[in-house]
C-alpha cells in the first residue's frame, strides 16, 4: 500500500457510537468538530455536547451567525437571527451537503430505497433549490479545488469521482467528466475533503481505508482505518492538519463489527486543508428546528 509520508493509522477520538456518522465539519468559533448521526437525527460535538433534531439529519453547516442543518427534505437554520427553513423540492432524503467557497449551498439527495436514478445534486439559489445533476443514485462527496475552478462530486454506486469546471460567480458547472475510478475491491467512494495542495481525501465505504488522490488523479496515499465503513472526512484543529473521519456502525464482509465502528477517528496529516466556508442562507422563511442541546 502507498503511504509515502508515513501517516499513522487514524485512531478513535470520541467514545460515542453513531449508526451512520457523517458530515464532519470544524467549528472555528469553539475549536471543536461537529458531525451527525443521520438516522438518529443527532448532532454531536467533540466537546461532548449533542443536539437532537428531527431525523434524519444529513449534515450540519456553519453559517455567519450560527448553524444550519440539512434534514430529510429541507435546510433549517438552528441559530442566528434568520431562522430560515428552506424546502428542497421533491427530495426524498438529503445526503451529503457543503457550501462552496462563496457560501452557496449544494445538497446531494438519494431515494429511500436507493433506487438507480432516484437522486439528484441540488444547488440552493436563494430560497430556490435547482437540480443541477439528475439521474444519480446516491449523491455524495462534494469539494472544490483551492482556486475554486473545479468541483468534485461522487455518485457512490458508479465507484467514480467526477470533476466539473466551476464558475464561482454564479455556481454554474460544465464539462462533467471522470476524475478517478475506484477499483471494485477498494470499496465505495463516499465523502471527501480537498487539501491545500488540491489533493482529494476520499472515504471508502466497505474498504476500511481512505485514499488521497493528487490533482492529476494519481493515487498518492492509501490510509487504512480499523473499521469497515469510513463515511466522510474533514480538516480541523488550530492548524487544520488534523483529518477527522466519521464512520458507520456496520459489519465487515464477514459480518464482524470492529470495536471502533461508528466512532469518530482522527489522524495528523502533512498537508492542511481549508477552514469551512459558512453557508449563506436566505432570509427567514419559517421556523427553526427545535431539540435538546
TrEMBL record:
Q: Which Pfam families match?
A: SGL
What keyword terms does UniProt attach to this protein? Metal-binding, Zinc
- Residue ranges of the region described as Disordered: 273-293
Q: Which cofactor does it need?
A: Zn(2+)
> A single GO BP annotation from the record?
L-ascorbic acid biosynthetic process
The cofactor binding remark recorded in the entry reads: Binds 1 divalent metal cation per subunit.
> Which residues hold substrate?
93, 95, 113
Q: Which Gene3D superfamilies match?
A: TolB, C-terminal domain
What does UniProt list as catalytic? 190
Occurrences of domain SMP-30/Gluconolactonase/LRE-like region (ranges): 20-249
- Which residues take part in binding a divalent metal cation? 22, 140, 190
Signal peptide (from-to): none
Q: Which molecular-function annotations from GO does this UniProt entry contain?
A: calcium ion binding; gluconolactonase activity
The record's similarity note reads: Belongs to the SMP-30/CGR1 family.
Could you tell me which PANTHER family the record lists for this protein? REGUCALCIN
Q: What is this protein called?
A: Calcium-binding protein
Question: What lineage does UniProt assign to this protein's organism?
Answer: Bacteria, Bacillati, Actinomycetota, Actinomycetes, Kitasatosporales
Amino acid at each position: 500500500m502507498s503511504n509515502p509520508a508515513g501517516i499513522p493509522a487514524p485512531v478513535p477520538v470520541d467514545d460515542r457510537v453513531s449508526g451512520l456518522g457523517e458530515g464532519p465539519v470544524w467549528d472555528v468559533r469553539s475549536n471543536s468538530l461537529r458531525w451527525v448521526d443521520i438516522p438518529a437525527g443527532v448532532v454531536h460535538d467533540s466537546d461532548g455536547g449533542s443536539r437532537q433534531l428531527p431525523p434524519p439529519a444529513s449534515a450540519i453547516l456553519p453559517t455567519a451567525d450560527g448553524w444550519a442543518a440539512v434534514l430529510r427534505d429541507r435546510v433549517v437554520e438552528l441559530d442566528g437571527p434568520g431562522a430560515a427553513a428552506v424546502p428542497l423540492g421533491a427530495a426524498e432524503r438529503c445526503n451529503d451537503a457543503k457550501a462552496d467557497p462563496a457560501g452557496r449551498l449544494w445538497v446531494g439527495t438519494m431515494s429511500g430505497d436507493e433506487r438507480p436514478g432516484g437522486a439528484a445534486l441540488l444547488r440552493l439559489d436563494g430560497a430556490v433549490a435547482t437540480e443541477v445533476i439528475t439521474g444519480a443514485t446516491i449523491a455524495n462527496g462534494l469539494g472544490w479545488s483551492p482556486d475554486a475552478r473545479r468541483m468534485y462530486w461522487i455518485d457512490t454506486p458508479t465507484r467514480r469521482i467526477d470533476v466539473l469546471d466551476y464558475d464561482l460567480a454564479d455556481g454554474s458547472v460544465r464539462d462533467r467528466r471522470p476524475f478517478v475510478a475506484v477499483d471494485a475491491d477498494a470499496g465505495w467512494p463516499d465523502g471527501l475533503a480537498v487539501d491545500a495542495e488540491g489533493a482529494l481525501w476520499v472515504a471508502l465505504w466497505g474498504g476500511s481505508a481512505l485514499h488521497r488522490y493528487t490533482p492529476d488523479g494519481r493515487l498518492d496515499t492509501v490510509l487504512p482505518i480499523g473499521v469497515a465503513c469510513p463515511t466522510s472526512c474533514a480538516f480541523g484543529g488550530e492548524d487544520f492538519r488534523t483529518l477527522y473521519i466519521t464512520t458507520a456502525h456496520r459489519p465487515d464482509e464477514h459480518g464482524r463489527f470492529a470495536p471502533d465502528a461508528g466512532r469518530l477517528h482522527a489522524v495528523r496529516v502533512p498537508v492542511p486543508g481549508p477552514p469551512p466556508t459558512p453557508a449563506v442562507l436566505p432570509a427567514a422563511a419559517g421556523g427553526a428546528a427545535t431539540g435538546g442541546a
